[in-house]
Amino acid sequence: MKGRVLAVAAALIAGFLAGYFATSRRTQQVTTDKKGRRILYWVDPMHPSYKSDRPGIAPDCGMKLEPVYAEAEPPAAQPKGRILYWRDPQQPEYRSDKPGLNPETGNELEPVYEEAGGHPPGTIHISPEKQQLIGVTWATAEVTPVSRQVRALGRVTYDETRLVEVHAKVEGWVEKVFVNFTGQQVRKGEPLLTVYSPELLASQNELLLAARAQQILESGPVSHARAYSRTLLEAARKRLELWDVSAEQIEQVLATGQPIRSVTIYAPADGYVLQRQAFPSQRITPETKLYTLADLSRVWIIAEVFESEAGLMRPGLLARIQLAHLPGRSLSARVSYVQPELDPATRTLKVRLEAANPELILKPEMFVEVEFELSLGRKLTVPAEAVLDSGVRKTVFVDRGNGYLEPRQVETGEQAGGRVVILKGLRAGERVVASGNFLIDSESQLKAALGAMGAPPAGTSAEHKHD
From the centroid of its chain, how far is CA 164? Predict the structure, then answer.
């Protein structure tokens, strides 16, 4: 009886051990890969929070689950390739083609090696099928003409070189006023007003006396007396001319032998009356400003350009003027002067333009829109959407061939016409991703995250489908 019990117990123990070892062998097959690395669990690469204890497909996005290993492959198994460049470990965007120090920080540069397969660090692989699935398109870095439009608000004002003030050069009294309201248009040589001046009347009498003396002495025997009389006559004439008495008025005095009681003052230039301070019976002196005239056939436009665009302004630039009351019509203007300082209140730079105004469309104090078309020359550019701007760095994905994409940091300049200037980081002819780079960037970041967790680089999520 006792021997039978021992036999049954031995059979049970033998069955238990056989089942244990069989289960252990099955578990060993499931939880290790071909390289013998132990698998902890499987994870959805797009949603790392989802975990599974067996391989398969993620139920939410349909992507193949990836294994997470207990330990990474020994670093010795990843031989270093050739050196691509040297960089500052504290300033990764600084690169050099030779070892040394960063002149800005003084840090010693460290080498950056090719990854296995001859690709730069961070390169990811996306098969052509996956590229089509996520909508990848391509563009080429090209040297193209670059232009930029700058818009500014402008205010029309008078051309200060075409303003004229009218003064009388003698004391007297205004008798008649021919131009009697502000805004009236006058032409050069048109009479403005008449002035009675005792000084002018006395000077006319001196002219008449000099003319009579010359007539008497011309028939005399003394030659130097004749010359002296001619000099007196010329001096009397010149004095009246300096007081703005016209040649016709002087000839009228000599022809009639009578002085003109009220001398007429004429407009010295074409223009519109901006100010009128001449009234009948008004006493005037040479300091009295009678009229201010403005020639509006050409005007100034004062445009205010933002501080960020101030460096683009220079004399000679052409601009197009748009008027709110004449939609669809534009005028041309040219920069004649750039102010040397910014307006401290608005932080803008005042730029003066000159424009022809034959139809008087541009009226002083009118606001207009000024548009500058600036040519920046030929520069290396890519489509603006090809540059992924994170706020800290700007990245493009360069095609390395056979589905390999290299994330590369670049420095950018002006953006115009849907393209952006590349100052550093690309060469002409290199092909870059033009669309779909957000998804590619997420793949690149996922690869870096999995690499930090110990996952092998070859198993990035870029090899799987997206929903």
Answer: 38
pLDDT at residue 274, rounded to an integer:
94
Q: Indicate the pTM of the whole model.
A: 0.58
What residue has token string 């061939």? 401
pLDDT score at 55 = 86
Pick the closest to residue 143 from 421, 452, 459 (CA basis): 421
CB 134, CB 443: distance < 8 Å: no
Backbone angles phi, psi at 351, to 5 degrees: -120, 130
pLDDT at res. 465: 37
CB 2 within 8 A of CB 9: no
Angle between helices 247-256 and 223-242 (to 10 degrees): 130
Residue 338 CA to residue 322 CA, distance in Å, equals 21
Of 462, 406, 402, the residue nearest 123 (C-alpha): 406
3-state secondary structure of 403: coil
Please report which residue ranges of 31-150 form alpha helices under DSSP H: 128-133
Q: Which two tokens stand for residue 276?
A: 């009128």
SS3 content of the chain, % helix, strand, coil (to 5): 25, 40, 35
pLDDT value of residue 115: 56
Q: Mean pLDDT for each 10-residue chunk of the chain (467 residues)?
A: 53 52 45 73 74 82 78 48 72 77 84 63 79 85 88 95 94 95 94 94 91 79 75 90 88 91 92 95 94 96 93 92 88 95 93 94 94 88 89 87 86 86 91 83 62 45 38
Phi, psi of 223 (to 5 degrees): -70, -40
pLDDT of residue 175: 94
User: How many whole angstroms from its chain centre is CA 215?
Assistant: 77
The pLDDT value recorded for residue 457 is 43
DSSP tag of 35: T
- Exposed, middle or buried: residue 369 (CB in 10 Å: 0-12, 13-18, 19+)? middle
- Kindly report the length of the chain: 467
Residue 109 to residue 83: CA distance in whole angstroms: 12
Q: How many of the other CB atoms lie within 10 Å of CB of 434?
A: 19
Q: Which residues of 278-294 are buried (b: 16+ CB within 10 A; e: fewer)?
A: beeebebeeebebbbbb
Q: Crossing angle, helix 247-256 and helix 198-218, to 10 degrees?
A: 60
Residue 245: closest CA among 294, 283, 211, 199:
199
Task: Name every residue whose Cβ is closer than 8 Å to that of residue 253 and which is 6 or more positions away in sequence.
Answer: 204, 207, 208, 259, 260
